Amino acid sequence: MSAVIVLEDGLVLPARAAGARGTALGEMVFTTGMNGYQEAVTDPSYMGQILTFSAPMIGNYGTGDRCLESPRVWPEAVIATRIGDSPGVAGTTGFRSWLIAQGVVAVEDADTRRLVRHLRDNGAMRGGVSTEMGAEELLALVREHPSLDGRDLASEAAGVARTMGDDGPRIVAVDCGMKEGILRGLAGAGMRVEVVPAGITADEILALGPDGVFISNGPGDPAAVTPVIEAVRGVLGQVPLFGICLGHQMLAHALGLRTEKLPFGHRGANHPVQRAEDGVVEITVQNHGYAVAADSLPDGVQVTRTSLFDGSVEGLAAPELLAASVQYHPEARPGPHDAAYLFRSFRDRVVA
């Protein structure tokens, strides 16, 4: 069945249906990852977005439960050049069949090279994918659709309260759309993790008696997630705190910094980040559309890591307030393991 892709600036691309039939609207973004397709589409950070895979072929090693980062698919739609449907090392169900079973609007035979270059040149923007209407009708819907700017999506993306890990210091993890891989990384480093949903207050966090606090990744505009920002501000200096991705941005706002939207975001498994303390470069996995602006740093706050792609802030530390954060995803599943030590470093800070 034929399909159409439309961007708010009027770009129209033909495609062919490869998933569930329907119409989807959202912010059009792309990832450069060549694998980890099931992990990507189950990452809550993609809530409200349409995800384009720049790799020429995805879905070539099947799907399975062990590759899930959450119980559901979060992008509004998936776009690719080719979507495979064969079993493989990940499981016996093909990716195309899995997308259909999940009810995900997905298309292939799209000119993803042109789409990605267009987004790189013009920035992320609203878009739509449809198997049931023409370009003109779809464009009208796209231009009426709200952007992600100013939207707090953390509470919608948060999962249920849960625990993981049996031994070690007790960590309260604020779930803003937390990947299961990050939860496993914390527990695997020897911590008992109690996950609570975004919206919890600082007093409620401290009443749980944590040895440390973790703030997770998640979707939406970080400046709009004021409940989490206030919670972070309230626990600063009380117990060690660690933030990843959106959690990094929440810490930044709590410290008095601001965030700004990147032209087309950082999404993929090949992002080089340099550590300030020793100059070592880590290859990282990233998924974010906003970045911390460090035009003026408050006293006691340090930039600990910097992107070698565009110079954006990839890490912060406020030692006197017992707080640190990174913008990228240390568990990198699948992906490079350069940053996996960060979970152990957090545990060391908690037990020091």
In short:
The protein contains 10 helices and 17 strands. With 352 residues, it is α/β, with parallel strands linked by helices.
Description:
The structure is a single chain. The protein is α/β, with parallel strands linked by helices. The chain folds into 2 domains: 2-144, Carbamoyl-phosphate synthase small subunit, N-terminal domain (Glucose Oxidase, domain 1), CATH 3.50.30; 154-351, Class I glutamine amidotransferase (GATase) domain (Rossmann fold, 3-Layer(aba) Sandwich), CATH 3.40.50.880. The protein has helices at 37-41, 95-101, 112-122, 135-144, 154-157, 180-188, 202-207, 226-235, 246-254, 341-351, and strands at residues 2-7, 12-17, 23-31, 49-53, 77-79, 105-108, 125-130, 162-164, 170-175, 192-197, 212-215, 241-244, 258-275, 281-293, 302-307, 313-318, 323-326. The longest helix has 11 residues, at 112-122. The protein is globular and about 60 Å long.
How many beta strands in the DSSP annotation?
17
Query: How many domains make up the 3D coordinates?
Result: 2
Distance between the termini: 60 Å
Estimate the helix proportion, in percent. Answer: 10-25%
Strand order of the largest sheet: 8-10-9-11-12-17-16-15-13-14
